[in-house]
């Protein structure tokens, strides 16, 4: 039993996808399954783990990475099928605060304007106080990398660097803010929209960080017609409303 | 005063034959300083001692010592083990394996009861011959060494009542004799009440003032040691071969030349190896039936010291080699065990006058218990 | 009461946990016996290696398993080609991960109990003509049984909770490797998944309660039969 | 040999692990004693609750800790206002997380050993006038010491490896809450971080080896003094 | 043939006083069927027995049984415990606590040695009085019950050699007698060699053909039981109060009317309670010095059956109450213990002719061992 056989003989398409896509992708897959009478299974985990697993022969047919680095990694090992890689989705970063916070600092925070760099800095330090700035780990998690790049570009990194609480995924950062443990945080817009206990303070200008791209490709070992059909469907117009509903930007 | 009236059942468990259930019923009362529990293996001795110590909770009943109630099922009273003031020499030693001999010995030594003095540690260890073992880890001791440490540990804990469950079982004769002396000293000098479990008639008659006889879980008799061992109906329990009379006698003279002591009792006088007791002391002498010789004429030129006269009360002829002849001396009945052939040759008959001969050294010091 | 999906997850979790316990028990017992009753060169290092799954982050263990037992890994290839056993991305792999993570716990509990069995009793059995192996099976093992049961229980519970090594080694494939913790993880990544998380947590708790009561029951049954701590004439 | 950063990580990890063990030991011992020597209503449920940290995914435990002991959580507020103790984003929180995760292991090992101590010996001590508490301290505890040491060791090792609950509860703050596993985690996410990962893993292994040898040493010292399994006249 | 020549040291450990180190040096050889190890507590008996069983490895030396070498430090030979074919009744029982009495008894029962038959299980359990305990969990047994199960377990394991370490220590007199009979049957019917550790002279003289005397870790003598107990220089080790003569005599007549048996030895004839042995059997009779009475004229009308004549060889007067008078009868020396006062009154002198009186019943059946 080689993995490629097990991937196809059971007639199930296996998708490896970044964990942050779970809700939206589950919905897309459900629609695809009813339309094509094909069975699809999705394994959600960190993009890095998934990439390493594909490298060691995982029977995945489609890989959706939360960033381009791990897709590059697989491409460099010649594991992706030529010409199937595409930028599937985009996302945005937002600055969030607990919805429940009623103090003055957090109230004036809404008036933040990143163009006014000094004021933004003082507003943020006022809102932060002695608290922590929640975000995904910039060394480890894509969302963290983007957030760090943006804060650097905005000249705010130095003032928050010592106050950062790094999390292993965006959801944990979101949870810190939602619970009011951290007065500020940066997460994806998609996450912030789904959590009523946080309030989006400001959108982070997209120009301040590399484009946030969910990259998808077929894995050449398990390249089947159904897999290609699924990837095509995910990138199709028909899939767009669902992506948008969950806050993603379809590319 | 020890007052025990308890019941305890060990019902057969699942998977056990019914025959294995056992009920212990013990009702006895005694104000002896040393009371012995005597009975066959499995008759319930350890269970009773455990109940007194508080290690086994009787199903119902009452235990009191010196009018202090330790357990009473009707009053729902059950004093905690540690507050009972009881020292216990366990049948199986139960030394603390992680402590040295010394630490074992001193474990209970700081328990103090008001106005109670204790034996010095050095004396106990020396008398028990464990003074060289003090720094040893207790699991490396030999069987007898363990038993001696267990005795020392209980003695040093300053108990008001001492429970001893076959404390001398694995000791050699010499050590046994020394330990018996130690136990007597504890009784006399510290006034500790002792409940003593033993299979050895010698130990029991020497030490115990009262004896409770157990049989198949029941206390069937409890009385003065003398009475118990002179009761014919208890012979099956006190041991066929060990029969004899126990007499309480008064020391009337010491012979310092020959190291003999003369004792007087209602049936006459006897001499025995010298016992260092004040004149007038009451001493318990055991005369074993097998040590008694009968004669129809007063013998001469013989090394036997004690010649008493009496009349034959009865002869218990069970048809074997041996006949037990009971001779009344004064108002006391003394059994003598002779061969049936002798009886026939001497033509002994009930009511006949006979001489009853007992060697002086038949009373060995080790089995003489003095009681005051 | 449970959705079809939940039933699938629970049954998979149980299968994984059972398999992991059954897989590792004999080896754990052997290791425990070696450590408890023998002395050999490098014993400390061996002991330390056994504890690695406890000390290292689960992700690292999962990653190491992937490197060793993946289809491309040396062991994985050997087992696949030689015996047709595949761990990669199969529930068997989840079981392997769980077994590895629970192994130190199992060994320790068993060892603790084996060490408490008196060598004197083993000696007594040998004077009755019993070989070492018979002594082990009829004396040592029954007397160490409480610890053996505890070892199995701990490993079973640990299996039910195993997350990091599993997701790193065999990914999170519904119906194949998605055990309870992995399913819960998926839900934590979903906004508003809290109710579903609580349901799954409740299921985990129920499973652990059941396995615990079962193990206590087994241990007690053994113990009444065995009278281990031996109230004896005292109790 | 070690970089300044590594030294910081190691010393923090040790501090967290020590604190977690010291924090939980008395409570664990109390729980173990309760479970080993007493019977009370709801004992099974209590026992099951103790095992939760083993059965539930670490993330869930971390989240639960956040809910309870965060600055906004009821316990967190109480401790902060009442005693000035803060767990959130502090190394103390990492220690708390590690303590909770290691707790079932500690209790189980201790309980196993306590159950193996013969009640007869405790009784013997009580006939010598020792109160229950003295019996516990001078007889039960010393005799159960191997298991107590094993319990501490397991919890210590588990602390060194704890990842999921820690990062969820107190996040990953270098110098404050970034223990070894958290540092390793960061590296696993970076392509090409393998060399650094291996270094940190090697450090973890070294720490576990040391703690293991230390615990064996302690146990052996105690045991030679204690002669627990008692070779006695046989050995 | 048992051939032991070993050394074993237990050096003092850290934290122990040097005084606690102990060296066991045992060199003895015997082809007796029952050999007893006799010595004070802590003298090394259990250690020797453990070495024979293979539970203790001597520092150096050699152990062989019937020319089969079990241990030899020079040849680096050390047979495994289970292959030695040795049954062991441990001093501390060591029943398997997780097994029932029956399971304990049968644990070794399927060990079979070529051409060796075993005692039936039912007989063993009945004789030991444990037939009603079979389904019981072994930790619930009483002390004596445990000991009996341990004996049964070892007997049923079909050993070639049986080691018994104080097997009767906590049994009552009646049970002890029955168990002694069982041990004799095992010796005779199954031809099992027995190494017997005991503190009781009675048991040793009854059972043992040879005795090895231990003192402070050294085997100081090993010889025929009779020789050992008649050797004056060993008296300090064989026990002052238990002194006596051991004579081997031949049964020459049974008196079926009076149930007596007449035995003949070089010094004369004695009668004793009937012993069911074939005429011509050799029987070991023990005559305790305390049971011997001396007379200067032949007494008449007395219940004592045995009157021997001899001449006084020596009198050991240590100045106390008692004098030990050694009387030569034929070529045998028999000690008699009388009071010093008697000696002086009878004016006994060395060389004098005396009558030596012994009651027939002084030979009790329980202490008579027949050897063929
Ligand atoms: N492991 C050990 N370490 C130190 N000394 C020991 C060890 N085992 C035995 N001894 C000592 O060796 C001596 C002989 O012990 P052994 O058990 O052979 O005596 P024993 O003759 O059987 O005595 P008992 O009649 O009391 O059982 C004792 O003094 C004992 O304390
Ligand atoms: N827990 C128990 N369950 C069942 N039976 C028991 C239990 N404990 C004791 N017994 C039985 O009760 C009886 C009395 O036991 P106990 O220990 O009191 O005897 P003992 O008189 O001390 O005997 P020994 O002289 O042999 O020590 C024995 O037959 C024993 O088997
Ligand atoms: Mg008893
Ligand atoms: Mg011994």
Structure write-up:
The complex is a heteropentamer, with one copy of chain A (251 residues), two copies of chain B (372 residues) and two copies of chain C (235 residues). Chain A is an alpha/beta fold. Chain A is 42% helix and 22% strand. In chain A, β1, α2 and β2 form a beta-alpha-beta unit. Chain B has two domains: 233 residues, 3-Layer(aba) Sandwich (Rossmann fold), CATH 3.40.50.300; 124 residues, RNA polymerase II/Efflux pump adaptor protein, barrel-sandwich hybrid domain (OB fold (Dihydrolipoamide Acetyltransferase, E2P), Beta Barrel), CATH 2.40.50. In chain B, a hairpin with a 4-residue loop joins β5 and β6. Chain B is globular. The two termini of chain B are 17 Å apart. Chain C is mostly helical and 235 residues long. Chain C is 77% helix and 0% strand. In chain C, α8 packs antiparallel against α11. Bound molecules: adenosine-5'-triphosphate (2 copies) and magnesium ion (2 copies). One magnesium ion binds next to α1 of chain E.
- What percent strand of chain A? 15-25%
Q: Identify the CATH homologous superfamily of chain C.
A: MetI-like
Please name the two chains that share the biggest interface, counting residues whose Cβ lies under 8 Å from a Cβ on the partner chain. B-E, 87 and 87 residues
The poorly predicted ranges of chain C are: 226-235
Overall, the morphology of chain C is globular
Structural class of chain A: alpha/beta
Please work out how many helical segments of chain C DSSP would assign.
11
Number of strands of chain C: 0
Instruction: Give the radius of gyration of chain A.
Output: 20 Å
What Rg of chain C, in angstroms, do the CA atoms define?
A: 20 Å
DSSP strand tally of chain A: 11
Largest sheet of chain A: 6 strands, mixed
| CATH architecture type of chain C | Orthogonal Bundle
Alpha-carbon distance between the termini of chain A? 37 Å
């Amino acid at each position: 039993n080689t993995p490629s056989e097990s991937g196809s003989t059971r007639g199930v398409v296996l998708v490896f996808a970044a964990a942050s896509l779970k809700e939206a992708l589950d919905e897309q897959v459900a629609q695809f399954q009813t339309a094509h009478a094909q069975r699809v299974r999705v394994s959600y985990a960190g993009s890095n783990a998934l990439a390493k697993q594909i490298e060691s022969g995982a029977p995945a047919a489609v890989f959706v990475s939360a960033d381009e680095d791990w897709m590059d990694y697989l491409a460099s090992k010649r594991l992706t099928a030529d010409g199937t890689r595409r930028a599937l989705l985009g996302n945005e970063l937002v600055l969030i605060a607990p919805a429940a916070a009623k103090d003055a600092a957090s109230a004036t925070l809404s008036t933040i304007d990143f163009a006014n760099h000094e004021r933004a800095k003082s507003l943020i330090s006022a809102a932060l106080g002695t608290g922590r700035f929640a975000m995904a780990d910039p060394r480890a998690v894509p969302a963290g990398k983007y957030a760090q790049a943006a804060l650097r570009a905005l000249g705010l990194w130095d003032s928050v660097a010592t106050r950062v609480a790094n999390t292993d995924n965006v959801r944990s950062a979101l949870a810190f803010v939602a619970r009011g443990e951290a007065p500020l945080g940066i997460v994806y817009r998609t996450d912030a929209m789904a959590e009523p206990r946080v309030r989006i303070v400001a959108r982070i200008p997209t120009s301040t960080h590399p484009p946030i791209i969910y990259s998808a490709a077929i894995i050449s070992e398990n390249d089947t017609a159904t897999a290609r059909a699924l990837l095509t469907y995910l990138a199709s117009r028909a899939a767009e409303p669902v992506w948008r509903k969950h806050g993603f930007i379809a590319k | 005063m020890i007052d025990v009236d308890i019941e305890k059942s060990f019902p057969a468990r699942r998977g056990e034959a019914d025959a294995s259930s056992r009920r212990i019923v013990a009702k006895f009362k005694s104000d002896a300083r040393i009371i012995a529990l005597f009975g066959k293996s499995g008759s319930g001795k350890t269970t009773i001692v455990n109940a007194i110590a508080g290690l086994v909770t009787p199903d119902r009943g009452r235990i009191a010592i010196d009018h202090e109630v330790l357990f009473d099922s009707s009053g729902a009273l059950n004093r905690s083990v540690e507050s009972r003031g009881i020292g216990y020499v366990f049948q199986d030693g139960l030394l603390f394996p992680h402590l040295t001999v010394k630490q074992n010995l001193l474990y209970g030594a700081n328990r103090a009861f008001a106005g109670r003095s204790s034996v010095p540690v050095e004396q106990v260890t020396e008398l028990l011959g464990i003074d060289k073992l003090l720094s040893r880890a207790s699991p490396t001791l030999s069987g007898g060494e363990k038993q001696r440490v267990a005795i020392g540990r209980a003695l040093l804990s300053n108990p008001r009542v001492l429970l001893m469950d076959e404390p001398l079982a694995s000791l050699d004769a010499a050590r046994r004799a020394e330990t018996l002396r130690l136990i007597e000293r504890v009784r006399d000098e510290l006034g500790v009440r002792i409940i003593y479990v033993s299979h050895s008639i010698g130990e029991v008659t020497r030490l115990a003032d009262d004896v409770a006889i157990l049989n198949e879980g029941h206390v069937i008799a409890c009385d003065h040691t003398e009475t118990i061992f002179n009761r014919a109906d208890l012979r099956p329990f006190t041991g066929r071969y060990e029969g004899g009379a126990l007499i309480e006698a008064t020391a009337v003279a010491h012979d310092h030349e020959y190291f003999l002591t003369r004792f007087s009792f209602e049936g006459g006088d006897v001499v025995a190896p010298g016992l260092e007791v004040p004149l007038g002391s009451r001493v318990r002498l055991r005369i074993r039936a097998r040590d008694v010789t009968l004669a129809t004429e007063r013998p001469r030129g013989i090394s036997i010291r004690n010649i008493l006269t009496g009349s034959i009360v009865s002869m218990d002829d069970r048809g074997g080699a041996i006949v037990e002849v009971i001779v009344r001396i004064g108002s006391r009945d003394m059994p003598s065990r002779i061969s049936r052939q002798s009886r026939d040759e001497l033509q002994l008959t009930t009511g006949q006058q006979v001489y009853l001969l007992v060697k002086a050294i038949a009373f060995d010091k080790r089995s003489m218990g003095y009681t005051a | 009461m449970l959705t079809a999906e939940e039933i699938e997850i629970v049954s998979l979790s149980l299968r994984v946990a059972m398999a992991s316990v059954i897989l590792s028990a004999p080896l754990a017992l052997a290791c425990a016996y070696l450590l408890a009753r023998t002395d050999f060169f490098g014993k400390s290092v061996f002991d330390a290696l056994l504890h690695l799954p406890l000390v290292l982050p689960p992700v690292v263990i999962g990653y190491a398993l992937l490197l060793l037992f993946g289809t491309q890994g040396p062991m994985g290839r050997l087992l696949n080609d030689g015996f047709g056993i595949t761990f990669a991305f199969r529930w068997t792999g989840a079981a392997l991960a769980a077994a590895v993570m629970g192994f130190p716990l199992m060994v320790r509990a068993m060892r603790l109990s084996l060490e408490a069995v008196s060598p004197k009793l083993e000696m007594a059995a040998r004077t009755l003509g019993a070989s070492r192996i018979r002594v082990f099976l009829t004396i040592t093992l029954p007397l160490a049984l409480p610890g053996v049961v505890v070892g199995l229980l701990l490993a079973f519970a640990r299996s039910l909770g195993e997350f990091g090594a599993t997701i790193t080694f065999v990914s999170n494939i519904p119906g194949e490797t998605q055990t309870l913790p992995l399913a819960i993880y998926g839900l934590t990544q979903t906004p508003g998944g809290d109710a579903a998380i609580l349901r799954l947590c409740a299921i985990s708790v129920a499973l652990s309660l059941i396995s615990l009561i079962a193990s206590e029951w087994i241990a007690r049954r053994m113990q009444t039969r065995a009278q281990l701590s031996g109230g004896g004439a005292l109790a």
